[in-house]
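Reopening this one. Same input as before:
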Amino acid sequence: MRAASGILAQAVVLLALRAPPEWPSQTAAPPTDLQFIVGEAQKVQKADVTAWSHYRFGRRSEREDFDDTGRVVDRDDLEFVVTPDGDGFREELVRHNGVAALSSEKEDQRHSSSFNKHYKTLVAGAEGQEESGYSLGQLLHLSSYRFIGQEAMNGVDCYRLDFSPDDVRPRTGGLAAKFTKAMEGSLWITVEGFHLAAARAQTVRPITIALSLSKVYELKVRMEAGPVGEGVWLPLRVEVNTNARILIKAIRRRNLFTYSDFIRLASSG
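Same output, byte for byte:
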């Protein structure tokens, strides 16, 4: 049960991290303007994601489970120090629920390698398999868009793009297609530098997954990014709220992932 519910929270984090492989021109704004913004954002986002492998940083994963009345019935709080290690990351659990982590807990989390798995899927752009997760690029590739104009996000001038489900496009398989056919939201891309500064997404209809054994009634995602040094922008906060059913169990959950204390390692070059 925990492994199945983890798919919902872990995979959706990638929504906020991957740039689109292709964006169509739109009629809401001059096509050349949108195409230019998107083209630059694609290149910058790819560079930002690649640069993440050169930074040591703090990662905090907070989970809250709720009952039907909205009362918190379970929570978990994990704090890590994540360090580049070869072609991946070494994840050290330092605190669990506010106290120093036990050796057994550190070992369990080291084997889990949750961020390492997220990052490898992110870089590879994997899609089409439920266990692989899905990315913002897939979401945008399957949606329709509107250029809203310029708008400040956290004090930074940004271009805002709204997206919504596009039922005209052919359906494809996999978890990504199911979610992208049912989500709407907005993106904010910085005017200076074309970095992805924020994203908001939510489902507009229920989604059935895992051979109809699971159903997501509502999913809301909020991501905020910021500069971490040397012209690189990376996610600082990702919040995922899920209302779902897995087999016969209802899941009402809030996951909050925060990233901080980025330090570029000299040896990462």
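So the earlier flakiness isn't reproducible anymore. For the record, The chain is about 25% helix and 45% strand.
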